[in-house]
Amino acid sequence: MIYDLLLIVYFVGCIVGLWFVFKKAQMAGAPGVKPWMALIPVYNIVVWIKICGKKWPWYIYFLIPAINVFTFLLMVVETAKVFKRYGFWEQTFAVIFPWVYLPILGLSPKFEYTNPADLPKHKVGKLRDWMDAIVFALVAAVIIRGNIMEFYKIPSSSMEKSLLVGDYLLVSKIAYGARVAMTPLSFPLVHNVMPFTNGQVESYLKWIELPYHRYRGLCDVKRFDAVVFNYPDGDTVATAWQSNKSYHDLVREEGYEAIDNAKYLPVGGRMVENHIRVRPVDKRENFIKRCIGLPGETLEIKDQKVYIDGNEIEMPEQAQVTYVVNFKSAKTDPHKLLRDVGVSDEDYQNALYEGSPFLPLPLSKPMVEDLRSRDEIESVERLMLPINDSSQMLFPHAYGYNWTIDDFGPVLIPKKGMTVPLTMETLPLYRRIIDVFEGHELEVRNGSIFIDGTCRDSYTFSMDYYWMMGDNRHNSADSRFWGFVPENHIVGKASLIMFSRNKDTGSIRWNRLLKPVK
């Protein structure tokens, strides 16, 4: 509620400020300007541009998403100038707090409006020019990145072949609603670690941590949306590995003492400095997966097929699973043939087995059909991949859940307000929700479950949760490994491929530029 009030104060403050700015312009003889014009959407922008002496391109700038944020802040500065307010710190204050500055400008008798044509020339040095540009760009970029859109690079093959390594995506923050920054004291335009520190220095301070709030968005999360979210297993991080390997997986493998007390950990054949960090929600690593299960649904995977509430759902057309590829002749150059089909060099190298006549490769349905149509191929058959000791590797990391990545569940996806029975058998599914995501104190004493000191046999969820899976089903660390994604971890919706470069060849994928994400 408080955040909605702050948003109202922001807009009301700006409108009230414009009312009195327009009134001063009217009193100074600006033709056709009246205070009430500040109350009319769109027309108030037209009048504002006019009294600041700007030309017709400014009307266009206000129509372009994201650019209109820059334009609005520029107009605040231009308004200060027609009142002969040129000070650096004053204009900085105006850009950061326009809802405060505009009313001050309009109400204070010290400030008088001057027609732009009558303003004396005011020159500033190059240093001041740079300072103005830096402050303005930072404020505008922080607003846009936090509330409207952000760019995201696909770092791994977990979403292939729908989204490819080297794709640069536009992620819409307003699609599901902008999320208020929960850790506001952070270095601008940096996610969670400072650059050039090898991932060892955090880019934020936890002196102020705000509660979760999301403004109303354009739509809800839908099945098959490509969603960017904060890594749910990233609440605690071993900095030697960052998100490449979950701290909780490391602890399950090596034990708390071995990980928490290790000053260095082996990573890729070398020893890397290690620290244990506990990160707030909005500073956990960003992941991208496809939403498969929605709040309140029951999900099950049987023989690689996903079922929701007992009904099979189709896999995305470009989704991949592992197939065994057999070649007719040893003389065939598999690397060239597979690259032609769309297999990445990384997937090919991972599939090589010395002396083996076949290759296990992640392939989409179109790739399988392409391979089967080629004379050099003997057969292409689907491969089922069992997981050994799945009780430790797969969610919920408990004995008795003998699931694999191809045969998983059933699992009920929690919904806000839903109540589930709690037993020692079901507790592993919801333990992290109760104590990590929803912040309750959870204990097990003599076979009984205590939440905040009270013995409980049921639990009611406070948030919605989602089930996310990568399109590359056999090469994706997703909900099958770390469980549910809480609603407060949702960052935004992947909407558009802005740019794409092939990692193997270095060439630009022209056919993917400005392509909507599906």
Rg result = 28 Å
Mean pLDDT: 90
The total count of helices amounts to 15
Main sheet: strands, sense, barrel: 8 strands, antiparallel
Tell the overall outline.
globular
Low-confidence stretches: none
Q: Helical residue percent?
A: 25-40%
Q: How much strand? A: 15-25%
**Helical/strand content category:** alpha+beta
The first-to-last residue Cα distance is 34 Å
Count of beta strands: 24
Oligomeric category:
single chain
Can you tell me about this structure?
The chain is an alpha+beta fold and 518 residues long. Among the domains are: 146 residues, no CATH class; 63 residues, Alpha-Beta Plaits (2-Layer Sandwich), CATH 3.30.70.80. It is built from 15 helices and 24 strands. Strands 1, 2, 3, 8, 21, 22, 23 and 24 form an 8-stranded antiparallel β-sheet that branches. It has a 4-stranded antiparallel β-sheet with strand order 11-10-9-15, with no helix packed on it. α1 packs parallel to α6. The longest helix is centred in the N-terminal third of the chain and has 26 residues. The radius of gyration is 28 Å and the shape is globular. 31% of the residues are buried. The mean pLDDT is 90.
Give short descriptive properties of this protein.
4-stranded antiparallel sheet; 29% helix; 24 strands; 8-stranded antiparallel sheet; alpha+beta; Alpha-Beta Plaits; 518 residues; single chain
